[in-house]
Design brief:
about 450 residues; alpha+beta; BirA Bifunctional Protein, domain 2; Helix Hairpins; single chain; 2 domains
Length: about 450
């Protein structure tokens, strides 16, 4: 979320930042709305001051027995009360409108994000490993898994619909092994604290990590048949300049829950509505969870296989840090994810996303793309983003150095460490043998009870 004060003071840089996102100028409209809000706030405060002064006159008039003065002052207090209520209503409406507009605007990107309209303009940063020389025509992971009798889309479709799957036997165990391996590397070697978070989160948590209001249609909502918040509903819980109301219930707003699209949501919200001691930062969290995405608007994209599922497993990394350290933490997180692919022996490349491909809440994003023999190309397997203070403002997550009185917003970062389902299919394809069996990477064998091959 953006700071309206910063927009007032520097409107041209803000509009330039939005232009990089393909948006028209926004500052003038926001500043005008903020000016109306401040006028309403001032009118309310002036009315309250005048009412307090008039209220003192009522007592004096009553004590003196001046009935005419008493009635006059009482009428004045009544008129001021109406003025205060009207100004208060204006303040509420204008604050909600301004908050909603600020919530709907994407983050400003870092200066080093390359220009470009789509993924074709992404810049390769580095590459590791070579695609495997299999010596035969590779099968895709779907054909491999179904031939093994361990990947079942048909049964899942009967029970849950499209884009769900049953993993069985060796592939189910391989998925579990991948998750455990990733967790061990990130916690035991890279200093992340393992967390087992809730899988259901509230509206305000989703606003905090910018899934709402823009991506309501991408979520699976739980209970009451809700399909997501309407824009007007979001405006009811928007703050004036910083974040979200602390209690949705206090505004009589219906609280709905959604299944997490990623563990980024609960992990990042661990920092919300608190002031953190900078001496104890960074806070590094990771979690191995299922993730749930409706994939709204993705019809026709990667409908075959495990690449784009409604439910999938992922190890997520989240870092809460200071502004000075966020860039270094971004590079570190990227290398933490890379280490997983190196140890699995999977060829990959690191891509810096261009302006047109950078996500709504990110200042800067690296994608890791793993090589898939069946497609003879690299596909995304991890995305690591620095969000700066964008999410922190929505969550009112701040930090303070020892001896300092003023608190400031933290920086938040998130990234896959890595997507387990995509790692599974990458292992299947890169380690396949001509007879359809799959060699288990050595690093995973201790998690597989020493098993070396998955065969029919």
């Amino acid at each position: 979320m953006h700071d309206i004060k910063a927009i007032r003071e520097n409107p041209d840089p803000f509009d330039a930042a939005m232009k990089r996102r393909g948006l028209p100028p926004q500052a003038a409209e926001l500043i005008a709305l903020d000016e109306k809000l401040r006028v309403a706030i001032a009118a309310k405060q002036d009315g309250e001051t005048a009412r307090n002064a008039a209220s003192k006159k009522i007592g004096a008039a009553k004590a003196s027995g001046d009935e005419a003065e008493f009635e006059r002052v009482r009428a004045e207090v009544g008129a001021l009360k109406n003025q205060i209520e009207a100004a208060g209503e204006d303040e509420t409406k204008l604050a909600a409108a301004l908050g909603a507009k600020l919530l709907a605007l994407p983050n400003a990107m870092s200066d080093d994000v390359p220009p470009g309209a789509d993924e074709s303009a992404n810049a390769q940063v580095r590459q590791w490993g070579e695609p495997p020389a299999l010596g035969f025509e590779p099968k895709d992971h779907t054909a491999l898994g179904e031939a093994l009798g361990m990947l079942d889309f048909k049964s899942a479709a009967k029970i849950s619909g499209a884009r769900f799957a049953f993993l069985k036997g060796g592939l189910a165990r391989l998925e579990r092994a991948l998750g455990a391996f990733m967790l061990d590397v990130q916690t035991q070697e890279h200093g992340f604290l393992e967390v087992s978070p809730p899988l259901l989160v509230r509206d305000d948590a989703l606003i905090g990590t910018n899934q709402l209001p823009k991506f309501a249609g991408d979520l699976f909502w739980a209970g009451r048949g809700r399909e997501g918040l309407e824009f007007e509903e979001v405006s009811k819980i928007a703050g004036t300049s910083v974040a979200i109301t602390k209690s949705l219930e206090s505004k009589n707003t219906v609280v709905s829950h959604a299944l997490i699209p990623t563990a980024e949501v609960p992990l990042t919200n661990l920092a919300r509505e608190a002031i953190h001691d900078e001496a104890g930062m960074p806070h590094r969290y990771c979690a191995y969870t299922p993730c749930f995405r409706s994939e709204a608007g993705s019809a026709g994209k990667d409908t075959r296989g495990l690449i784009r599922m409604h439910q999938f497993m992922k190890v997520e990394m989240v870092v809460i840090t200071t502004a000075e350290n966020s860039a270094a933490e971004h590079e570190r997180m990227t290398k933490c994810a890379e280490e997983i692919l190196k140890r699995l022996g999977l060829a990959y490349r690191v891509m810096l996303l261009c302006a047109g491909d950078t996500g709504f809440g990110a200042q800067k994003t690296y994608d890791l793309e793993v090589y898939l023999p069946s497609q003879q190309t690299y596909r995304e397997i991890s995305s690591i983003s620095n969000c700066g203070e964008f999410q922190a403002r929505r969550m009112n997550a701040r930090c303070r150095a020892a001896g300092e009185k003023k608190a400031r917003f933290v920086h938040t970062l998130n990234g896959s460490g890595i997507a387990v389902g995509r790692a599974l299919l990458a292992v299947m394809e890169n380690y396949q043998k001509e007879d359809g069996s799959i060699t288990i990477p050595e690093v995973l064998r201790p998690y597989m009870g020493g098993q070396e091959v998955i065969a029919p």
